[in-house]
Amino acid sequence: MKRWDNWLRGLSFALFVVLMINQKVQLWLGLFLVTLVLARWLGRLYCGYICPLNTSMLVAERLKKVLKIKEFKQPKFLSYKHLSWITLAIMIGFMVFGQVVLKKQPPILPILTVLAFLTALFYHPSFFHNYLCPYNAPLKLFGSKATFSKHVTTEGCIGCTKCEKVCPSHAIAVDKVSRKAEIDRALCHQCQECTTVCPTHTISYQKVVK
Ligand code: SF4
Ligand code: SF4
User: Fold this and answer.
1) HEC string of 102-144?
2) 186 lines ligand 2 (CB under 6 A)
């Protein structure tokens, strides 16, 4: 059965392509800013359903399985937890340079989409999501305070770790002592991966009391 989230991602990707072809990058950045602010209340829905980088990574994940490509280990020197603030600064630097010096906007978003695809082909997707992606930095900040988020009802959790294994951003982990899963809102993309595999249907999108 086709999943509604794949359709939504496909439509968002098509909109992205149309806007890029027509050089309306500012419209896409506007959409990003709206969803960034909304992440404070609704979580990182941009990552889960709208982001073209994520959609390209999902395609890469499929391809990786079909071609049986083995994942490399994430390089240690690129495992600094605030790395995405640096990549954000680099991206803004390129945009300003393009605008002021070249009088032309460099195609940063399409370049990032290709980079995300290639990274996900050879590494776990969390490498790009949590470290390389420039959008991760502000989204993490807003998402960490989300009022609504994916949440595990601990009574229903049997600690099977199925959710942990499918999470693209390492946002869910089963505690070694309590054997209960917990979600980090700052990293959670509010996608359907963990919800779909949970055998006890104990993960849902709800108001988080914290
Ligand atoms: S898949 Fe469900 S039951 Fe298994 S650890 Fe995750 S939340 Fe708990
Ligand atoms: S915790 Fe669940 S909803 Fe959040 S990113 Fe991971 S798989 Fe997606």
Assistant:
1) HCCCCCHHHHHHHHHHHHHHHCCHHHHHHHHCCCHHHHHHHHC
2) no
Give, in degrees to the nearest 5, the angle at Cα 138 between 135 and 140: 95
Q: Looking at the structure, do residues 74 and 112 belong to the same domain, yes or no?
A: yes
Q: Whose CA is nearest to atom 8 of ligand 2?
A: 191
Q: Which residue has the tokens 């393009």?
A: 98
The three-state secondary structure class of 159 is coil
For 86-143, the pLDDT digits (tens) are: 999 999 999 999 989 988 888 999 999 999 999 999 999 999 999 999 999 999 999 9
Tell me which DSSP letter residue 83 carries: H
Here the CATH number for the domain that contains residue 154 is 3.30.70.20
Task: Give residue 210's pLDDT.
Answer: 64
Q: Which ligand is nearest to the CA of 171?
A: 2
Residue 200 Cβ contacting ligand 1 at under 6 Å: yes
Q: Is the pTM of this model over 0.90?
A: yes
What's the domain range around 202? 148-207
Most distant CA atoms of the chain, gap in Å: 58
Q: Is the C-beta atom of 167 inside 6 A of ligand 2?
A: yes
Taking CA atoms only, the protein residue closest to ligand 1 atom 2 is 198
Backbone φ and ψ for 140, nearest 5 degrees, come out as: -65, -40
Query: Which candidate, 95, 89, 114, 3, places its Cα nearest to that of 49?
Result: 3
Residue 139 CB less than 6 A away from ligand 2? no
